[in-house]
Amino acid sequence: MDFIKKHLPDKFFLEDENRVSLRNIIAREIVSNTLMHREYTSSYAAKLVIKKEQMYTENANRAAGSGFITPENLEPNPKNPLIASFFRNIGRADRLGSGVHKLFKYTKFYSGKDPVFEEGDVFRIVMPLDDDYSFDMGIGSETNTETKEINRETNRENFLKINMAKTLAIITEEPSITQSELKDKLQISLMSVKRLMKVLQDNGMIERIGSNRKGYWKITRKGGHSSI
Q: What is the DSSP secondary-structure string of 70-126?
C-alpha cells in the first residue's frame, strides 16, 4: 500500500460531508484482492505496475471462468476462504464481492473512468489514471440537482481553503519551490496546483519574482495576514 501511496496523489473528495481518501480505499481493495484471491500453488509472480495512464495488477488465479467481470455479472467465488476470513476479522475486507463494487464506485470518482476486471488463469485489474481529473462534488444520501450543486461548491471551497493555507506555509519555508514539488507535497494533481497558484495570485496573496526557472514565490502582505 505504501508503494501506491507514494506514487498516486490523494485527491480531495467529500462523502457525506466527510473527507475520505479515494487513493487509500483503492489501494486497500487492490492489495486485499491480490492476497485473498491468489492461486498460491502457482509460481507466477504477482505484479503491481503504475504507469502514467493506468495502474494494473496481474495475479495467478484459479479461474472459475473467463472474460470481464462487472458488478452486474459478478458471482463471488471464495478462492481462499481462510485468508478472506482473516482479512475480514482484521478489518481489511468486507463481505465477499464487495471489493469489486467499491473499486467500480471509487475509481469513477478518482479518475472519471471504470476499472477493468479480467478473469482468466492470470487475473488482471486495470485502474485508469488521470492526474488532471478532479471529482469536485461530494456524494451523500440526497441526489437532487440543488443538493449536488451545493455539495460541488462546498467541496471546491474546502479544497481551496485547506490547500491555500498549506501552500502559503510551504512557500514561507521554501520560496523557490516548483509547482511539481508542490504537487508532491500537497499530494494533488499538477493541474490542481496550477489552479491553486492562479487563485492565490489573482487574490494578491503571492507573486512571482524573477523567471519561471530561476525565480521564487513571494508572499504578499495580504497573503501573510490571511486567515484562511
A: -TTT-----SSHHHHHHHHHTTS--STTHHHHHHHHHHHHHHSS--EEEESSEEEEE
Of 128, 157, 188, the position where a domain reaches its end is 128
Q: Please report, for the domain that includes residue 193, its CATH number.
A: 1.10.10.10
**What is the phi/psi pair of residue 66, to 5°?**
-145, 155
Conformation bin of residue 17: beta by default, left when phi > 0, alpha when psi is -120 to 50: left
**Does residue 138 belong to any structural domain of this protein?**
no
In a domain, 140, yes or no: no
Same domain, 180 and 121: no
88 burial via Cβ count (<10 Å: 0-12, 13-18, 19+): middle
pLDDT tens figures, 6-61: 889 888 788 877 788 999 999 999 988 888 888 999 999 999 999 989 999 999 99
213 and 112 housed in the same domain: no
